[in-house]
Design goal:
By secondary structure, the chain is an all-alpha fold. It contains 4 helices and 2 strands; from the N terminus they run αββααα.
Length: about 150
């Protein structure tokens, strides 16, 4: 039974890493596209893709760091920011009938019907929900169990 739990923990950790790295690489790709002329939406004067890149970076840092509660703060801030952006983008994309979020069909804003693909804010929203579940059932639970047992990680 303990061996099965260790295997499940490894699978969760690997899946968590895979999703965070995939999100991070996607944010890098869109941020690079923004630099080369395919703009992403802005929050005030800052392109959202840069904010999402930093948010996924914080989540990655949280998985790498060990020790005190900073891990949970990094993850919480990164995940929260990325989730709010994905949620707001998804709501706006749905309410406006499209053209708000970059799409999988080319990475740029979908200004017309000729551009196809899945809005990336929808993809990000699903990824972030799965990432939260994996984090809570993996690293967060492990840290809480160790803390409750009086152990240091």
């Amino acid at each position: 039974l303990r061996e099965n739990n260790m295997t499940l923990e490894k699978v969760r950790t690997l899946a968590l890493w895979a999703l965070i790295v995939f999100g991070l690489l996607g944010a890098v790709k869109i941020s690079y596209s923004n630099l080369t002329g395919n703009p992403c939406p802005h929050i005030v004067f800052v392109p959202i893709c840069y904010v999402v890149l930093i948010a996924y970076g914080l989540m990655a840092i949280s998985i790498v760091t060990k020790g005190d509660g900073l891990t949970h703060y990094f993850f919480g801030i990164g995940w929260g920011v990325a989730f709010l952006i994905a949620l707001a983008g998804s709501v706006a994309e749905f309410a406006m009938g499209g053209g708000v979020c970059p799409s999988s069909g080319g990475g740029s804003l979908r200004a017309g019907a000729e551009n196809t693909g899945t809005p990336l804010c929808y993809v990000s929203l699903v990824f972030l929900i799965v990432i939260l579940i994996l984090f809570l059932t993996g690293p967060y639970r492990k840290t809480c169990d160790a803390h409750n047992a009086g152990l240091e990680i």
